[in-house]
């Protein structure tokens, strides 16, 4: 008797439960890492490096699961498996690594970049290129808009979907 190995895409509810379960375990890992870091280096150092610890904790979670080619705890919970396109094979190591890097480091890089841009725009002594960005009205608009991006809001579409999530969700089509 032959079994049908057709790819059945996961339902939205299953994906949401998967992400919630992964978030739960990532939070547990982050709490443990924060606790260890605070004990070793103190609260002042922890406050200085908490975003880096969060990024590293997320990367560690996905490196232990996805990068090694096994399901995350959320995927296991709802019984889904990442596959490459219509093929029934696990994505290559490079593809998994790229997904993990996009998912874990992109929010950190975006946040740091926006914070740096805010500092540049708020400083009237900094001359920006192109020259139009030096206009006072444009700077005031940028000062208003950039913090919204930092909080994860898109001022254009009024959604609170972070850019890296769009890349991640695209892989489930």
UniProtKB/TrEMBL annotation:
Q: Domain named Pex N-terminal: which ranges?
A: 22-119
**MF annotations from Gene Ontology:** ubiquitin protein ligase activity; zinc ion binding
Q: What is its EC number?
A: 2.3.2.27
Assign the protein's first listed, main location to one coarse class.
membrane
Query: GO annotations under biological process?
Result: protein import into peroxisome matrix
The protein's location, in the record's own words, is:
Peroxisome membrane
Q: What is this protein called?
A: RING-type E3 ubiquitin transferase
Organism, as annotated: Dinothrombium tinctorium
Q: Source organism lineage?
A: Eukaryota, Metazoa, Ecdysozoa, Arthropoda, Chelicerata
